[in-house]
Q: What sequence folds into this?
């Protein structure tokens, strides 16, 4: 990836146009072009220069018209870049449409699946989502562990074996911490604690966990080709910048100063990434604070999403959203649009996942029709049964079952013992140290057919 081409000098384009065609220049300054193309897309110059401009305009003049319109609509944010220039943004019609959709789907319960509004099943899906976000957020930052191995580790509570697994465990703990503090105001100390949890045992110098980078830490963001993409502000500015970030997060927006909570959460995400206050773990900290702000302001469905899973599908677009902002007058609109689309896609993926899991549950339950077990297994046992049918020989433990569903040890023990009793011998029980382990038999489907009929 390379830094996007910087836009042409608007002042030079306008001066040239005023000399050649004053009437056209005046119309352009009135902002009639609009801030997007005819399809409502908010493009950077590196895309606009390849488009067919409106009749009568050159590419440079078309860009000038877009920028003048954007300038008239933009609002400034209380943050400055390393040169003292403010960040700005605007909200396009498409953004309003997505925000309306997200308000309906991420903060209310009208359209929410019963799986995540039902107290008996909610915890199962919440635990899964926390695991997914922990794994995907770590993989964005370079963790090499597979999803399957990582989930097994988190379920069993196994000690991480390497750097990658430690990153994932840390992310999981940080997401749990974010849930616990979602009612609290943001402080520098809270940010430090989130970072400390995220980086514990993964930094070259353990003293850097939960601590701002020092001036001697020369931090840059590199591309895969080792080109410098971003150099953050000086370390001496970080304390003031974090204080400003906390003030922004804690301020109650009203009237003309109102900023939609999800946009504000995205701004927090962006600024941590831009400022890079720590030697490592900035991206993970930024995404964690996004979740904190969204949950604090009632967007409870985001607990069940993995934003990072969507980012991981196209990581270059994520980086490009940062670069477009930095190379175009600190216009944060690019990053806001990218993240709104990411959240929307994550919600759509959640609905697909819930529909799929509901279908799997129904299939598992159907296998019990007209047997003595019909209607007797809870959702945790049905989920395990479906998994066991697909993974013959898989080893289940009480601790793993407990962590997978967020239940007590006794509840998990009862679930597994019931599935391995003489009456319902669907799992094979065996001793593993001082505890029991439960194995999915290869002939499980045949065992289901042998169950006594009603």
A:
């Amino acid at each position: 990836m390379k830094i996007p081409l910087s836009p042409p000098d608007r002042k030079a384009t306008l001066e040239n146009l005023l000399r050649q065609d004053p009437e056209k220049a005046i119309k352009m300054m009135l902002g009639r072009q609009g801030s997007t193309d005819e399809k409502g897309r908010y493009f950077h110059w590196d895309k606009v220069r390849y488009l067919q401009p409106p009749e009568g305009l050159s590419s440079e003049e078309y860009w000038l018209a877009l920028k003048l319109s954007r300038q008239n609509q933009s609002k400034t944010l209380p943050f400055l870049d390393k040169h003292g220039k403010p960040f700005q943004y605007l909200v396009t019609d498409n953004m309003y449409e997505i925000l309306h959709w997200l308000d309906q789907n991420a903060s209310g319960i009208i359209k929410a699946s019963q799986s995540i509004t039902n107290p008996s099943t909610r915890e199962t899906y919440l635990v899964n989502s926390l695991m997914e976000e922990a794994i995907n957020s770590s993989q964005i930052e370079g963790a090499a562990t597979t999803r399957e191995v990582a989930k097994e580790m988190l379920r069993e509570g196994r000690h991480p074996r390497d750097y990658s697994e430690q990153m994932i465990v840390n992310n999981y703990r940080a997401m749990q911490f974010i849930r616990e503090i979602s009612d609290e105001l943001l402080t520098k100390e809270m940010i430090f604690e989130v970072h400390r949890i995220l980086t514990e045992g993964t930094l070259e110098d353990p003293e850097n966990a939960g601590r701002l980078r020092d001036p001697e830490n020369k931090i840059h963001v590199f591309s895969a080709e080792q080109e410098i993409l971003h150099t953050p502000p000086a370390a001496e500015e970080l304390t003031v910048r974090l204080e400003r970030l906390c003030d922004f997060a804690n301020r109650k927006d009203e009237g003309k100063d109102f900023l939609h909570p999800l946009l504000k959460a995205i701004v927090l995400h962006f600024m941590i990434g831009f400022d890079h206050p720590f030697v490592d773990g900035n991206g993970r900290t930024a995404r964690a604070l996004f979740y904190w702000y969204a949950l604090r302001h009632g967007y409870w469905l985001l607990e069940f999403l993995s934003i990072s899973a969507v980012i991981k599908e196209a990581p270059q677009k994520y980086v490009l959203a940062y670069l477009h902002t930095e190379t175009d007058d600190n216009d944060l609109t690019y990053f806001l649009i990218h993240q709104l689309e990411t959240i929307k896609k994550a919600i759509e993926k959640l609905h697909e996942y819930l529909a799929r899991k509901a279908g799997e549950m129904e299939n598992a339950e159907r296998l019990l029709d007209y047997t003595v077990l019909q209607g007797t297994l809870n959702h945790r046992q049905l989920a395990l049964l479906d998994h066991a049918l697909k993974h013959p020989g898989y080893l289940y433990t009480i601790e793993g079952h407990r962590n997978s569903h967020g239940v007590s040890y006794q509840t998990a023990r009862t679930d597994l013992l019931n599935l391995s009793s003489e009456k319902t011998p669907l799992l094979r029980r065996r001793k593993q140290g001082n505890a029991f382990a439960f194995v999915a038999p290869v002939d499980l489907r045949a065992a289901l057919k042998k169950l006594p009929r009603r």
